[in-house]
Target: Serine hydrolase
Amino acid sequence: MWISWAFFDRRDGTLRAAENAGEPTMTASMVKAWLVADYLASHGWDERLSTIIRDSANEPAWEIYALLGREKSIERMISVCGLTDSAPGEDLSMTLMSARDTVRLGRCLADGTAAGPRWTSWLLDEMRAVRGTGDFGIREAFAGPDRERIAIKNGWDKRQALGEWNVNCLAVAPAWIMAALTRYPSSLPLAHGAQICRNLVSELV
Model:
């Protein structure tokens, strides 16, 4: 079992983080938030982008990833968002990112640096509209209007060769940004990682 987290307070600019917050892990689908932002900044809107965020759709994500130059897009993320612990992986889902870099990515998405001023509101609205399997974790700890204001992009992948899950949560709220990253045995369900992300809220927010 491996857990890492970071919490950025947007009101006073302070960061709290786990001791291992600089240790990277594979992002799985969480990195699709950057992928969509990178495409918006360079190409503008595309009908495939909404389902990449809302449904974490893989086929259009791979198409966009290829159009953006694959690892070149990840290298842009590192440069544009000022990441220090991240690197391209063998494929999109194997992109490496730490908890503190995940919070930095959240800031980059929220302040318009990633997608640009024209598209940032649209991107965050799509992240608030995440649905289906990918709607889990951090914002489940909230109800009503508070939950509706939280933009998320989660990542989850059962890596059979390693015998473990990668389950990662990114949440962007009006007052804070939070990352929770996990690895744990594949014999446990996805819900186990979702619960870890949700439970961390009570300690951090």
In short: The chain has a mean pLDDT of 97. The beta strands are 2-9, 15-17, 25-26, 96-97, 151-159, 164-172, 176-185. The helical segments are 32-43, 48-54, 58-67, 71-81, 99-110, 120-128, 144-148, 190-204. The chain is about 40% helix and 20% strand.
